[in-house]
Amino acid sequence: MSGLPWIVVTGDRETVFRELGAHFAERIRDIRSHADAQWSALMTRVEQEVVGERMRRIEASTRRLCPVESRELDLLAEGAGVPAFDLWVYNLRGDLGRDGTGCSDVSLATSDALVVGHNEDGAGDSADDVCLVTLVIEGDPSMTVVWYPGFLPANSFVATEAGTVWGLDHLPVVEPDENGAGRHFVARHAQRSRSGREAIERVRSVPCAGGFSFNIGDRETGRAVMIENAAGMVVTTDASADAPCLWHTNHLRFVGEPGPGLQPAAGDESLVESRTRGERLSGQLDERQAGRQGAVLDAESVFAALRSDGVLNRSTGLWTFTTTVADLANDRIIVQGRGEPTTLGLGAFAAGRVLETEARA
Known about the structure:
Elements: E1 6-11, H1 13-23, H2 25-33, H3 38-45, H4 49-65, H5 67-80, H6 84-91, H7 93-96, E2 104-109, E3 114-122, E4 131-137, E5 143-147, E6 157-160, E7 164-170, H8 183-191, H9 196-205, E8 211-218, E9 223-230, E10 233-238, E11 245-248, H10 269-290, H11 299-306, E12 314-315, E13 318-327, E14 332-336, E15 342-345, H12 346-351
Parallel strand pairs: 1-4
Antiparallel strand pairs: 2-3, 2-11, 3-13, 4-5, 5-6, 6-7, 7-8, 8-9, 9-10, 12-13, 13-14, 14-15
């Protein structure tokens, strides 16, 4: 869809994750083998005593806090024929240090609208890896995720059959919480929730070792919320009548003055880029709101803001792979990958009913 491969995997948990690993085994091994890529660099880093010990402590804490999700990663490794240790190192990249990537989010909640928009950004050399994966696991709500082979299907954008949608923004931390869980695992733990309330509670109750901003829309309650979960610190901000539209990029916005070790120094290059991109996104949203009758944003205006110059990333180091905008009030989603934007039913998208969806634009 829109130039993105889409695979649906169905069965019990063990079958689904083994088959997902097996289906993408060649690609996962190829990514692992690139000597100059991030995964290889991480494997070299964990050979350092301090980093290796940190990794072991975070892995142990993750297995304690998120046992089901930890088992899922082990099964993915088993299916791919890759050592589980290697996949753990790759999935803890943002918990062992900074992953160097971006992403931008918008959450909108009014009496008439509930919209969550997400730009999935990363290093340009990962562009061909990005795909859509639907997991239909016995006992879990079905869900569709923007996915990178080798990761738990959790670190980007997800729509679940429980009527919950969210995008994730990387939050770089200097000193991770070694008693927290790997952030991919916290996100995957929340995906398995039967309701938006449960998903929000799971995100708030399990601390991330590294950092993510969870930008969540819940159809049942009409709630749009941004939760910054970083290095053991959790702050929740709701869209409200006074501030119905929230945005987020890749720096802490809601914690006040970050404490020592929580965020890079003010002049850090990636921090400056995130703030600049955020200001442009905010300006685009303000401009579109001012130009609409009744000054009310909608899914199309959120999509346009995310695709605007200065928000859409087009550099080798930071490239926007997908833009997804979920219109929960009207059960539809706009997806743009490598092709033209496609609009389809949100419920059908989340459940992976590919043949039942009909492109409307």
